[in-house]
Structure prediction request, 281 residues.
Amino acid sequence: MFRNQYDTDVTTWSPQGRLFQVEYAMEAVKQGSAAIGLRSKTHVVLASVNKAQSDLSSHQKKIFKVDDHIGVAIAGLTADGRVLSRYMRSECINYSYTYESPLPVGRLVVQLADKAQVCTQRSWKRPFGVGLLVAGLDESGAHLYYNCPSGNYFEYQAFAIGSRSQAAKTYLERRFESFVSSTREDLLKDALFALRETLQGEKLKSSICTVAIVGVGEAFHILDNETVQALIDAFEIVGEEGPAPEEGAAAAAAAEPTPEPAADDQSAPADEGAAPMDIQG
Prediction:
């Protein structure tokens, strides 16, 4: 993107009907570290990448608890996300004090979207440069929403935002139909696998990611590093052992058409030469 005569004010329309300041805010979300959310009938999982800016600093939080039944993951300007999460926390407290019941997730998302939309119609304000994945559980079930800086909001079965999120979206799109009936453990596994897709070959470790979950009978909480690392280790072992039976089957299939040689020292080289061609095919 580049500067032009229509991007100096958030209330100025371009001849093509665009608000460039709002688009720049949405671009800030794409530049932030990746955040992922996915839900089943009973649980919602949030995961984010939280790399430190340098070896001497700690990382910034990307997942915030709003209430016992709601949490958010952010991508973009962390300061804006922190302000909005504080606003959401205040709304939940006020609603609970007034009505003595938890705030419905959908109503909170609408209030958040209205707050973001105001910043697109006031010349003395700027849009929030952060996207939020809102995970929650209420009487109508589990919910996952995405709130955009433009004031739009969408409900998803699974979604990813931030830098290199397209790789995670591709993974989620391949598997989202199974998420509805997924167990808690399967949902955590898919969240970690999707998060790994955004790292471009870098090894996934608990020190560079945060995982949180909310579900039936389980209040929103962030998993500690030891639990996340144990999950990563268990899932990576499964991933490494999974293809082994297929390779064994390919080797067996390659060996079946050539049972004629009786000597073991003659059949072994034939099998070694046939298996690689079968795997490539």
Q: What stands out?
A: Residues 78-99 form the longest helix (22 residues). Strands lie at 35-39, 43-49, 63-67, 70-76, 130-138, 141-147, 153-155, 158-161, 209-215, 218-222.
